[in-house]
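Hey all, sorry for the wall of text incoming. These are the two entities for the joint prediction.
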Amino acid sequence: MKEIHVNSIIDSIKKLCIDSNYYLPEDVKNAILNASSNETWPMAKDILDKILVNVDISREENVPMCQDTGMACVFLKIGQEVHITGGSLEEAINEGVRRGYNEGYLRKSVVRDPIVRENTGDNAPAVIYYDIVPGDNLIITLAPKGFGSENMSQIKMLKPADGIEGVKDFILNVVKEAGPNPCPPMVVGVGIGGTFDRAAVLAKKALVRPLSRRNEDPFYSSLEKELLKKINLLGIGPQGFGGRTTALAVNIETFPTHIAGLPVAVNINCHVTRHSEIVL
Amino acid sequence: MDKVIHTPLTEEKVRGLKAGDKVLISGVIYTARDAAHKKLVKLLDYNKKLPIEIEDAIIYYVGPSPAKPGNVIGSAGPTTSYRMDPYAPRLLDKGLKGMIGKGTRSEAVIESMKKNCAVYFAAIGGAAALMGKSIKKSELVAYEDLGSEAIRRLEVENLPVVVVVDFYGNNLYEIGQREYLESLK
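and here's what came out:
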């Protein structure tokens, strides 16, 4: 049994909030660099290069890359040998978010009620997912999610008869409809299977997988590559001004599903695909 | 070569801008997002005076991150414009000449822009630290309770934007994508 005090969870969450908003993960930066060197359309190349300058300014000056510093999405893998001490785990996570967004000069973008819309003033609460896993580690992944891209996401309950072609058409349509709105180049997270809710969570989890890593199943790995190629032939381009680079990657995650169903969720992210991780 | 625009954005200046032009804006602009737009339009409903000079003005759809000590403002990139579509024509009718945001606009907004001789610019979404560098002064004007959504008066120098929809109704989102795809043939 390993004991982890909530204070170390608060400190970790605070650091993850700040780091993920200031420092773009290397895999995402490399994907933009690659895109820039493959981009032939002058306006598109100009935009990608400005995006890279922005990444460098944020890193050097310790300021957020985007003013939308997102809603904090927290994924926990809790080893079943871990015992959390000193208080509530959920409260520790939310306290870490409060401190991170306050001390890191990050924007507070969360409203207490979706209809009444009063700002909570501290960006809490976070959206938290708990997975219990073997072992004695606590792995925390934090991904601040901006809503320019979140608003362009969709879910659909396809029929089994729609098959692979139905899945491809749906994903391409979501990207086409999103167009310039989600700040392309985008990252496309896809969840296929499970239930209505599981598909959406898979799509969100797909967005924290490094862009350099393909799905381990060769069938889905080649589907990811095929879809990326098709998306980058749509012509939307960086910021929607035209060009090759509409998406940096398509990440697909799957789960077994029911004989009657084929749920597909597409969670769109922008080029500021932020996430950072810590192991306690 | 970038075009240079100094505010106020008069009709004559709007007529000189074409979809696809890269523009550097200097002068005074105002910030407003969803919540502030709702309040502005409510004032118009009751024939009350707006808290900003709307004539020949530019509104930037932005909710900046908080300024670090010693800085004028935090990161300040554009938010998605379509959420302001229900309100924009009312402000255009009152003399608003420029809007800065990102993403598509409704037909109603574009028709209103043509009627009122206005222009829609896009800034680079997500390049917010870079955009913040062009902002030299920031002053709260109204609705402090809205936090980052409050209306601010910004003094900007060479704020980099691109004309997306010009006064003639030309749309870079259509033209740019079409020309790129034709270049592949």
